[in-house]
Amino acid sequence: MVDDVLNGMKDGMNLVINSLQKELSKVRTGRANLSILDGIMVDYYGTPTPLNQVANLQIADARLITIKPWEKTMLAPIEKVLVSANLGITPSNDGEIIRLPVPPLTEERRREIVKKVKSDGEDFKIRLRNERRDANDLLKSLEKDKDISEDEMHKGLTRVNEMTNDFVKKVDEVIQDKEKEILSF
HSE of 165 in the Cβ direction (CA atoms, 13 Å)? Predict the structure, then answer.
């Protein structure tokens, strides 16, 4: 019973860590990264379609993303969507390909991004603590219903706290790695 609760909590916490990593992959670091284009939808014959399904996306070098639509008629809609997406990058269109030059970040902008990343990290720690609370409540209700003994409940609560602390450390490590990436030139 206790192991089932812990395994469920561990699965939930792994999902939180994966969500954090996915969220941070979208953060601009001054290097070309295709994940900044995730979630951008283009009107493709009246249907909102992900950008990567109407064009070939490539990283030409550390500071340049190229977008080559499969149909030349899609150049203007893609360029319009990129401008309205507010990426902080101005697209340039040469009639065949769209280039997104990723400008280097200023020191001030890097610091702002780091603050935002740390704030996101705190939000994900709260999600971890919510998982802990749910597991603790479940253990207490199992003990109340006499499905587990009081000793098993206390051991389970201790293991829940240990696991939560381990996952909070993982969040801190992910945030520190992203901070180093943002602050490196």
Answer: 6
A 10 A CB-CB count for 106 gives: 10
Burial class (CB in 10 A: 0-12, 13-18, 19+), 74: buried
Q: State how far the Cα of 154 lies from the Cα of 119, in Å rounded to an integer.
A: 33
| pLDDT recorded at residue 185 | 59
Rounded distance, CA 97 to CA 71, Å?
11
The DSSP secondary structure of 19-30, one letter per residue, reads HHHHHHHTS--S
Domains of the chain in sequence order: 2-26+106-183 (1.10.132.20), 34-101 (3.30.1360.40)
3-state secondary structure of 123: helix
108 falls in which pLDDT band (50, 70, 90)? confident
| Tens-digit pLDDT profile for residues 18-39 | 999 988 887 777 777 788 888 8
Q: Is the pTM of this model over 0.85?
A: no
Q: Is the torsion defined by CA of 87, 89, 94, 98 positive or negative?
A: negative
